[in-house]
Design goal:
Layout lengths: L2 E5 L4 H12 L3 E6 L12 E2 L5 H8 L4 E4 L8 H19 L3 E5 L24 H16 L3 E7 L2 E3 L7 E4 L8 E3 H13 L6 E7 L4
Parallel strand pairs: 1-2, 1-4, 2-3, 4-5, 5-6, 6-10, 7-9
Antiparallel strand pairs: 8-10
Helix pairs in contact: 1-5, 2-3, 3-4
Length: about 210
């Protein structure tokens, strides 16, 4: 039986991944920075992705790690740059060889081949965050752990799952909508039946909204 450790289990994606894993009968350990702030996340344990020792301690004994991290309390460059290095280091030490990551659409290529965050109409206010996420991708590519980055479309919505999703693997932005629920299903399908390695995927819900 596949076992998962989910970092960022208190967020919208992390909660759905954790719940979906339990529905499938998988062993899952949800990790948050402060369990006292997430009393509704059953079995949550404390962990810090920016600390390799903390990562190694909570990840030991699991087959697959999931990163669904986000917080406004930590600078994005530290969280996704330094944090990704620490996460990969800790996972390698713990013997966890596979990492599935929730990404963002702005790191994909637009229709003209230019990164979305570099396009002329991309809002300046969001560019620093997107650059931090691009640094995350670079750290994954350099790191020792087999990874898959699951990138939703620009329209990521908190709606019920459609029950069907489509995946593309060419690194390009696609039109459409992605629900958190369908994103979680896609990641769990990959966790239990690996089909991709060291790749960035785009996940789109099949049913239109």
């Amino acid at each position: 039986m596949t076992s998962l450790v989910v970092f960022g289990a208190g967020g919208r994606a992390g909660r759905r991944i954790t719940a979906g894993a339990r529905e499938r009968g998988l062993r899952v350990t949800p990790v948050v920075r402060d369990p006292a702030r997430h009393t509704d996340v059953e079995g949550a344990v404390a962990g810090d992705v920016t600390d390799a020792d903390s990562v190694a301690a909570v990840a030991a004994g699991h087959d697959v790690a999931v990163s669904a991290i986000y917080t406004a309390d930590i600078d994005a460059t530290k969280l996704y740059g330094d944090g990704t290095r620490a996460l990969l280091d800790g996972l390698a030490r713990a013997g966890v060889g596979r990492l599935l990551v929730v990404g963002v659409a702005s790191t994909l290529d637009g229709p003209d081949g230019v990164k979305v965050y570099d396009s002329a109409d991309f809002p300046d206010a969001y560019r620093p965050f997107s650059l931090a996420r691009a640094a995350e991708v670079a750290e994954l590519e350099r790191g020792p752990v087999d990874w898959v980055l699951f990138t939703p479309t620009m329209q990521l919505v908190d709606e019920p799952g459609t029950g069907s999703y489509a995946i593309t693997a060419d690194g390009r932005l696609v039109d459409g909508t992605t629900t958190y629920a369908d994103l979680a299903v896609a990641m769990l399908d990959e966790a239990v039946s690996p089909k991709h390695h060291r790749a960035q995927l785009t996940v789109r819900s099949q049913t239109a909204f």
